């Protein structure tokens, strides 16, 4: 059985993250330069780019874990 991969356009990604589309492109460029952990886009055509939902979900989970750790360490030092 072939598993279907869900893909997001930059417009859908920006909406899901609550940011402007340009922010998605900036984060992607930083990740390609080795800065940050934003998931790289998939180029599926000459002018067609998508992000895999599973990659975006993993990124968000990682960001939530980092945030929780930072909050927890702040609470321990107060």
Describe this structure in words.
With 78 residues, the chain is an alpha+beta fold. The protein has one domain: Arc Repressor Mutant, subunit A (Orthogonal Bundle), CATH 1.10.10. Helix content is 58%, strand content 14%. The protein has helices at 10-17, 21-32, 53-77, and strands spanning 7-8, 42-45, 48-52. A 3-stranded antiparallel beta sheet has the order 1-3-2. β2 (42-45) and β3 form a beta hairpin.
Q: What's the arrangement of secondary structure elements?
A:
Elements: E1 7-8, H1 10-17, H2 21-32, E2 42-45, E3 48-52, H3 53-77
Antiparallel strand pairs: 1-3, 2-3
Q: What key attributes describe this structure?
A:
about 60% helix, Arc Repressor Mutant, subunit A, 3-stranded antiparallel beta sheet, about 80 residues, globular, about 15% strand
Enter the CATH topology name: Arc Repressor Mutant, subunit A
The class by helix and strand makeup works out as: alpha+beta
Total helices: the number is 3
Reported for the largest beta sheet, the result is: 3 strands, antiparallel
Unreliably modeled segments: none
Q: Helix fraction? A: 55-70%
Rounded mean pLDDT score: 88
Global Rg: 15 Å
Order of helices and strands: EHHEEH
Alpha-carbon distance between the two ends:
53 Å
Percentage beta strand: 5-15%
CATH architectural type: Orthogonal Bundle
Strand tally: 3
Total domain units: 1
What's the quick description here?
The protein has three helices and three strands, in the order βααββα. It is α+β, with helices and mostly antiparallel strands and 78 residues long.
